[in-house]
């Protein structure tokens, strides 16, 4: 028999009754039932129940074994009686009666429990991540991640893509976030950068003629943590295609994503290709977001016309003073009660808003209820009701001002209403593309023209658009793929022509010398024949987060950093030795602390 196991802890079934077996694993928990000692033995594959009688010579020794100790047991497989079978366990029809055992590794007292999975502080969980990973939910999520990546690979290869690896040590480039810099020992005073994305390299692969590239790519960005963004590093399904239009990119990746989600959705409905396409401008106006959760059926509409010259002087006055002001309505099916409307109004005040106006409809009250309804009169209130196709028991909320200043709040209100009224169908994954992003935007601080998305995108209309149109009106062949309100990736048809690229950067304030210095490798390559190409990079971490049904990326990453980008288990980052610093020609300068007063 093998030194450690003849079977895994998830393998035994009733057809093995009578067999002598050997198992190894962790002591998940112990239970004393009327003298009999039961042990749940756990490994990666499952749990098997062990039993030992009080008269057995090994009883007292097993009784002293701590939880999470690693043991090897020999024993006989016996059938459980009908009343003791566990239908929730694949091995629930049998148990192993121990005849011999050995402690392979004794466990000290645990800093956090593995059985039961009570909520524990993140600091403890990350410091003892090797223990945290033993807990069932996290263990399954990390295993799911591996399965999802394997599925993505299979599906991309089936779509005709070839996997390539791109460099980890590369040059710094202004991708929009801070780089992680790596000092060069051989070139004093110079630094590599870890790639924020393989953007330039995958485009160069297209120039090199490889046609369809993909990679499960590590990306590195020195930015703050968020629930949907891990600090430091993350992984994406990076891909690029040659001689393609935007439609071709969509047609290639949609079956990959829908197939992966169907494979791991546990019966939840998944959007079938082709995915809906929503223009960026329409998404902002309908959903108040460029990453809408389409499980929420609420769609906003402009209602400015109902308030012009109306008796509701607040909105009427705003509309009269500023031609850029609009009033939007956020419908609330089933929200037609004073209590709900007041609750939403209080929520808005908690978000820093003066309030949230509303009209609601109740039985026997013509023209709607609430202060706004009384001010605008029954005819206008009825017109609003018809516009949204609302009925008795429904409500509509209003936001007013310049849309570019309030649309995010309107989107938050839409999401809040959908959650509060339980309008969101949790049993589906709803995909969409957001398309036609603006090529440029005004920078909030400098008020200068800047790229709004990926600077390497092809403008719609090409060079002619750049030379003749208002930059703020130029659209780009840029797109995001969104699922359940989570942006999985950005992508674009790339700008493969040097003349168009130089002009595009010139509009954003970058001279030709800057472009040559920062992107000379790629720009030079384009001068030797570059195919039209495009791609995207769906986030692997976010895909797994959605499929696992968790709200935080740290629940699907084996060894994540904490919110301060620290590895508490390995104690990174840490200080370099004097010898290391000398070899790298680096001196550490403490930060300057400004004195007050």
Explain this structure:
This protein has 18 helices and 23 strands. The chain has 597 residues and is of the alpha+beta class. An 8-stranded mixed beta sheet has the order 6-9-10-23-22-21-18-12. A hairpin with a 2-residue loop joins strand 2 and strand 3 (46-52).
Report low-confidence residues grouped into runs of 5 or more: none
Structural class: alpha+beta
Biggest sheet: strands, sense, closure?
8 strands, mixed
Arithmetic mean of pLDDT: 95
Topology summary:
Blueprint: E1 20-33, E2 36-43, E3 46-52, H1 59-63, E4 70-79, E5 94-105, H2 122-127, H3 129-132, H4 136-158, E6 162-163, E7 181-183, E8 191-193, H5 199-207, E9 212-221, E10 232-242, H6 246-264, E11 269-270, E12 277-279, H7 280-287, E13 301-302, H8 304-307, H9 313-321, E14 326-332, H10 338-350, E15 357-360, H11 371-376, H12 378-388, E16 395-401, H13 403-420, E17 428-429, E18 431-435, E19 440-442, E20 449-451, H14 462-468, E21 478-483, E22 486-493, H15 498-507, H16 512-526, E23 533-536, H17 540-548, H18 578-583
Parallel strand pairs: 3-5, 6-9, 11-17, 12-18
Antiparallel strand pairs: 1-2, 1-4, 2-3, 4-5, 7-8, 9-10, 10-23, 13-14, 14-16, 15-16, 18-21, 19-20, 21-22, 22-23
Helix pairs in contact: 4-6, 4-17, 5-16, 14-15, 15-16
